[in-house]
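Standup notes, protein team

Yesterday: finished cleaning the Thermoanaerobacter wiegelii Rt8.B1 set.
Today: DNA mismatch repair protein MutS domain protein structure.
Blockers: none.

Input for DNA mismatch repair protein MutS domain protein:
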Amino acid sequence: MKVLLMYRDHDFDLQQKLPSNEEALIQDLELNTLFNAMSLGDNFLFEVAKKSVLSSVYSDLDTILYRQDVLKDSLKNSSIVRNIYNIAVEAIENEKKYYFSIFTRYPAAILHSSMDVLHMFMEMLKKLKSIADQHADKFESEGFKRFFTMLKKELDDEYFESIQNHLKELEFRDGILISAELGKGNKGVNYILRKQEDKKQSLIDRIFSKRPDAYTFYISERDESGARALSDLKDRGINLVANALAQSADHILSFFNILRTELAFYIGCLNLYEKLAQIGEPVSFPIPVASSERRHSFKGLYDVCLALTMEQKIVGNDLNADNKDLAIITGANQGGKSTFLRSIGLAQLMMQCGMFVPAEYFSANICDGIFTHYKRKEDATMKSGKLDEELSRMSDIVDNIKPNSMVLFNESFAATNEREGSEIARQIITALIEKRIKVFFVTHLFEFAYSFYNKKLENVIFLRAERRNDGKRTFKITEGKPLQTSYGEDLYKKIFGESY
């Protein structure tokens, strides 16, 4: 049985390798805040959220749209989806109660333990079948429709009846019938468990029917060696059946594990959706386009992690950067530039893993890699200067980046003087956009920003943190040419007062 709620043609791999820059993405975009909101303290949900979001750099357009449809169904039928998830969790937790590792080398113990597990699994599967029968028509996505169709087809009445009959037969209420052959040294070989004769005969037929010749011997109650020998014969006979039954239980357990894992992503999305709804923040399903295109436009985009941290609505931004390879963001200190940059990265990751995004409208091309280059604190060990450390991280990015990726720069290359920092930034950014890499660059390096502004390039857009005449920050990012000041004087007055 296949789940296929994350991909059309294969299961979601919780052990998959994450991008080499996962730690930088988590730190710079404050992703743990997002993961915590999705998991609500559940470690398993946290892990699935982390793997789903960070592995989205490998997503394709078809997978994104496939997941969006499944998530839309989940939002419309949240209680049903949560019920299915809870059934999977219950089945997995119950299975652990029947596992006795100290007995696993004894076929009889394996057999009885596996039978108990299968009886329990049958009840869980019947619950899933009942949900499919009652609610399948409420779902419209390809993923859920195929999932419910599979349940109805695989878990029909004939399947459950067949399982019940097999389990009843394996109780061996009338004893165990085993055949064997004599091998070298008259040792028993080729032990085979045989099916009991049909017991549906009438009493008269059973009494007078001809039976094959048979010999019977009895073991004394005090004969421990004989009892052990008989037990050994029994284990040899049921060994293959016990292993087959254990494999069947493992197969069904694997189904529940995959179901739990794939639904965990959507449960995390439901948790996040409900949290943002409480705050009053809007979400929407983005419109992704192929990575070869250049599209980046949105309305009301906000930093979802900041909203979750403050637990209140925050300022959103609008932008039309279609057909742009480079966005240079300048303006007043503490004007919302870093928050805006983080909202870009978060929305891109959320879109690429098939989630809704924190915006009223959002459309962007898929990126074949997402990288961040943020300023870091001084190296406490003094093994290298800040500029060396920045260039080292930039070198790592260059080693792993490829065309149609995206890089978010925040105050990069400012560890040296204005002229050198601007020249380093100019050469690096020029090389990146020549290789079809999308760049968002927050900076106070005026020479760098103005050098691009003077070129009047059609694929470059200039944004600025808005500041009113009285110095008040609106936290809005609007189009505007670079300014030579970041209005540090405003912060000075705010901290030390007008008299200084």
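Follow-up from PR in the comments: Residues 224-279 form the longest helix (56 residues).
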